[in-house]
Batch of 4 targets.
Target 1
Amino acid sequence: MTTNVLETRELSKSYSGITALSKVDLEVREHERVGLIGPNGAGKTTLFNCILGVLGVDSGTVLFEGEDVASLPAHERARRGIGRTFQRIELFSGSTVREHLLIAERTREGTGRLWKDLIGLGGPTRAEIEACDEVLAMLGLRELADEPIEQLSLGQGRLVEVGRALMTRPRLLLLDEPSSGLDRTETRELAATLRGVQAEQGFSILLVEHDVELVANFTDRCYILDFGSVIAHGPTRQVLDEPAVRRAYLGTGAGLT
């Protein structure tokens, strides 16, 4: 029986009387890839942040693996298995690829040893290095482990962000516009890598994207948000072919490949 990794029930959020989310119901099942699309200002980022715990909700429920986590802070949700990437790449200059993953591993372990590394009093253990290199190998970045982050292409930088999220051992990975800044070839390569890693590790994915072609070819189901409300949801191709959706977001003559 397929179970829900994530479920929101009648999730609502407003700012100074302006409704950002209105009774949003959404679910992500085990091993599934779900898309979330809509125009600017539709509420996608607000929904993401409410799921992550960055924002509190006015009403409604966030269930993660059957547990109501709506009152938990973001770091507690991360420890339970909710990982994320950012729309804008957030990498640290002067650090290597492996060091970025090591930071995530130390955070997950809660060892408090990162500060010691920064002042030269501690180094990574063999187990930590092996854990980082395992993820780098899955992402095709093993040969770049010791490269400065500044030497990477944008596509490789996106993969490092994915790798950092994978170090937290997520059960659910939230991807915030991972194709931003990538060309068509880089986007397809990123999608192929994500499919392979997901198949190996078994997590679920919730994807916020403006690239409709990526959503169409990558996700199993999708939700359309408009003015804070879900106006359509279901199997991705079926939803994107609905006349109202095509008129509103794709243009009447848009085609999918």
Target 2
Amino acid sequence: MFSNLTTVTIQFGDCDPAGIVYYPNYFRMFDNATAALLSAALGMNKRQWLAEQGIAGIPMVDTSAKFFVPSSFGDVLDIKSEITELGRSSFSVRHKILRETDLAVEALEKRVWTRRDETGAIRSAPLPDAVRKCLSE
């Protein structure tokens, strides 16, 4: 299935007082990496694909992460993100963060394709066939 590579340089503000990346900041990186993966798959930036698809967003409904090697200010990380599963209205992504050749973090997330209903509430919606095709290549 579709994959994408995002490179991130760790900033001072990403780190905790111990000088390593504060773990919630990895989830911000994963969110950005998922948006980059969809942007690469669909050939347009996030603002464009949100508007073109008429969706409310792709909220995360499940996540997990394993941390193997700490990262610090100035480290350059490669985030390899890949689609691992396509459901009716959901998709799963695996992120592997590499610091040089070391696996630093591995995370899984499940996202849901959503639209607003007539009351404004956010509801799941089926993945469009064109999006499903892009994500499965």
Target 3
Amino acid sequence: MIELELVLTNAAGLHARPAAQFIQTAAAFKSKVAIQAGSKSADAKSILAVMGLGLGQGATFLLNADGPDEAECVAALKALVERNFGEG
């Protein structure tokens, strides 16, 4: 299992379009992927669960991946967050 702390710096946080991008990226991998923010956690492959966390700009969360392609999964999701989901 790999665990990584990430910070959302895009203006919208993890809502609507960014959440959809995050979930689509996570779903491309076989590994189980979860997000934990404070006392809440969510399946990173579920749009309702991720949006239910209500993570806005500046929020910090833990990304956990466990499975055969966990390293690639975490790297792809980290890159997506770090490039602000393609937002200008």
Target 4
Amino acid sequence: MVQFVSIHPKTPQPRLIQRAADVVRGGGLIVYPTDTCYAFGCRLDSKDASDRIRRIRQLEESHNFTIICHDLSQAAAFAKIGNEAFRLIKSLTPGPYTFILKATRETPKRLQHPKRKTIGIRLPDHAITQALVAELGEPLFSSTLLLPGDEDALSDPYDIRERLDNEVDLIVDADVVPAEYSTVIGLTEDVPELIRQGKGEVHFLR
């Protein structure tokens, strides 16, 4: 049976954050909240857990995955961030944005877009997410908790437990998180590209 851990969304309890982090360190698959929705999370090098995400979500090989980072210095180990991109990301984070960047050699090939060799980088504005990646000391491999046939990501942790009881190892209950999408910005060229308008403002691109 899946572990179900209630963590305060504003002031997360350290011992419970450590419990979730220990599951990730052990190669497990968790469900956790971000500033836009609930998501799947696991270690970057956990092939079993990332394969479970692909199977649960029925994803194609070309799907764009995201790495949740604690700060920009951590992100720079996995994505090629030029000076202008650095300034833009710094001005918008933490926040509801996903930045598509060229992956570095440190990024496992199975996590990159197979043709473009890119990776999504996120620094969410959510206390639990920030505490989790800080406790881990490494990025979190992530994918939106959008199940096949659903139009939106699951938002109620009790619904999540009912549908994923035997599929994941731990679910973080942080109350209902209304499902929204992050704004996706491409930073692989000289000029930033709006790929998807989501929760984050994009007036700076106009």
